[in-house]
Amino acid sequence: MAELEEITPTDGSTGEVICTPSKVGGITTVSNEAVEDTDPAIAEAIAAGIANQIATSIDVAFLGDGSGAAKVPDGLLSTTYQTVDTGASVTNLDPFIAAIFKAKSVGANIDRWIMNPTVAETLSKIKKQTGSNEPLLQLVADGIQVAGIPVLTDPNVDAATVAWGIDSTRTTTVLRKGTEVKRFDVPRQDGQDVRGIARVGFAFRHPQANVRLYDAA
Predict the structure, then answer these.
(1) CATH 3.30.2320.10: does it fit domain 22-214?
(2) Which of the residues 24, 59, 185, 210 has the least number of beta carbons within 10 Å of its own beta carbon?
C-alpha cells in the first residue's frame, strides 16, 4: 500500500476447539499395620505408584485414538494429521526432513519428535556411511536430536508408528486439575485408601501441524 494510505480494518476469521478434561485416577487399600511397620513407608510407595499410573494413562490416551476403552478422550491417532511413509525401515533421516517440510506446508514448525525407545535406539545406531563406526546421531545426556529437533521417548507409541512430529504450539494438554494423591481412613478394614486423581484433556488446535511417520504398506 502507499505511504499514509489508510489501513482498512478487517475482522479475523476464528474458530474454537472445545476440550472437556477427563478424570483419571487410581486407588489402593492398605492395612494400618503395613502403613506403620514398613520401611520404606509403603503408603508413600503406593502414592508414587499411583501417580506413575496416572501419568502413563495420560500418555496412552494422548498417543491413542480414543477407542481403547469407554471414557477415554480422543488422542493423536484420532486426528486428521499429515503422514510420511517411512517404508519398512529407516536407514537415513530423509523421512524426518520430509515431515518437517510437510508441517511447514501448513505454516507449522515441528519442535519435537515422539517415538518409542526402541526406535530411538535403532536411529542412534545408524552410521554415517557404510563401513563407518561413527553414528549419524550424537547421543547426549538428555537424549538425541533428529534433524536438530529434540526426541522424546515414550513406550506407549504404537508399534506401527516410527515417530510423531509435533508442533507443540498448536497442540495443547489442558490440565484442569494436577495429580493429587490423598489418604483416607477405612475404619471397617482398619486400613487406609491411597487415592490419586487428575483431570486432563487434549486440544488439537491444528491437527495438520502434526505429522505421523510410519510404514504405509
Answers:
(1) yes
(2) 185
Taking residues 98-102, report their average pLDDT.
Answer: 98
Which residues are CB-contacts of 11 (< 8 A; sequence separation ≥ 6)? none
The amino acid that residue 141 corresponds to is A
pTM for this entry? 0.85
d(CA 41, CA 183): 13
Distance CA 62, CA 200 (A): 10
Domain borders along the chain are 22-214
Cβ partners under 8 Å of residue 35, min gap 6: 41, 42, 43, 191, 192
194 with 53: CB under 8 angstroms?
no
Q: Yes or no: say if 98 and 148 are a contact pair by the CB < 8 Å rule.
A: no
pLDDT digit string, tens, across residues 36-84: 888 888 989 999 999 999 999 999 999 998 875 667 888 999 999 999 9
* Interatomic CA distance for residues 181 and 6, integer angstroms: 59
Question: Cell digits for 177?
Answer: 486439575
Contacts of 113 by beta carbon, 8 Å cutoff, 6+ apart = 96, 146, 149, 150, 151, 152, 163, 164, 165, 166
